[in-house]
TrEMBL record:
GO terms for molecular function: NAD binding; UDP-glucose 6-dehydrogenase activity. NAD(+) binds at D30, K35, T86, T122, E155, K266, R331. Pathway: Nucleotide-sugar biosynthesis; UDP-alpha-D-glucuronate biosynthesis; UDP-alpha-D-glucuronate from UDP-alpha-D-glucose: step 1/1. It comes from Methylorubrum populi. It is an enzyme of class 1 (oxidoreductase). Pfam families: UDPG_MGDP_dh, UDPG_MGDP_dh_C, UDPG_MGDP_dh_N. GO terms for biological process: polysaccharide biosynthetic process; UDP-glucuronate biosynthetic process. SMART domains: UDPG_MGDP_dh_C. This is UDP-glucose 6-dehydrogenase.
Amino acid sequence: MRVVMLGAGYVGLVSGACFADFGHTVVCVDSAAKKIEDLQEGRIPIYEPGLDALVAENVRQNRLSFTTNLAEAIKTADAIFIAVGTPSRRGDGFADLSYVYQAARDIAQNATGPIVVVTKSTVPVGTGDEVERIVKELRPDIEITVASNPEFLREGAAIIDFKRPDRIVVGANDPRAAAVIGEIYRPLYLNQAPIIVTSRRTAELTKYAANAFLATKITFINEIADLCERVGADVQEVARGIGLDNRIGRKFLHAGPGYGGSCFPKDTLALVKTAQDCGTPVRIVEAVVAVNDQRKRAMARKVIQACRGSVRGKRIAVLGLTFKPDTDDMRDAPSLSIIAGLQDAGASIIAYDPEGIRQAKALLSDVIYADDAYSCAQEADAIVIITEWNAFRALDLNRLREVMRDPILVDLRNVYPRTEAEKNGFKYTGVGIGMR
Ligand code: UDX
């Protein structure tokens, strides 16, 4: 099949490279000339494990290419995926659909024959109807069908998520579109990946419901963690105790500093707004959004408490800045609120992150950056683990303590068991690990 991916951002690039790897001929189109130039010269603008090799191999095999020229790319395409951004609109939290609608207009203006348009961007229910209206109005002469195919990719594991999906959701009101998309995903039949074909609106809502549910699961265990601290229970054991119940499941029950990233914060908010507009508010998700927002700042207070009530004039070492490991993404990362809270309370911050420092520099001020965990801990009054990178999971705690001024460890991801930290001379604070 010949596929065009409109938008060479995170989702477009990963999806395009994976489709090419399935054997399709893929052209990624983006209006950002610098990005396309970089990609043509083999420079990948994002950090995602395995993506550089996947792109290089498929370019070498002539299955994957990059261009700014949509008119040329669309000529022979069977399907065109819209994979542009849908950021939160400033001020009201609704998804900003201007890039999606512009993509629809560009497609309509450049289409030369029948084509299936597939929205991969996360868009509120009903967006497909509007995309269809736009293309039909501009090009009544051509048969253009519009479908929805939401992505469920985790940053840091996107390629494996794409190639071994739990399911593929296809929202198509028309059998031709469903058949074309089915053909594009056919290489996955071998792995028996379930393909669920639904109406377009159902597919659009499925994506939001999935993310909102996962965000709810995390927020639920985070609140249980707070309760554990109060009553002297251990949230990791509670999570295991409930997670082994198949109806609940063990995943997404790790208590921490709150969820961040490019999807959960924006998608939960967009769902809340859509539901309010429809007169059927999703109050659980409203609570999740509010609880998660407050939690990030509350983590700064937790650090202050661990530092005997004050961080004024103290040097706090932060390990991990990105919203999760294996990404350089800083969007809505808990580290941003936690560091701001500590700085407001008079702390000076030294930080280290394996991949996120370049992005962090643009968002944080007055932070010193270290080259590794041990130099970060040098002369520190406390060390705070915010992101559970592999590099932080087997630190030599004794060596770490020796270079610090005060051996305080605040482990916001429960990477280390309390006993191990204490054995190495640390005063330890985890999340939801109560003491009685
Ligand atoms: C998420 C969804 O998983 C993916 O399906 C969707 O398409 C995009 O959004 P992503 O944002 O890359 O993916 O990361 P994910 O691994 O889901 O983690 C999101 C946030 O939740 C991170 O901040 C992470 O630290 C946090 N989290 C996750 C927890 O705090 N506890 C958990 O148990 C799991």
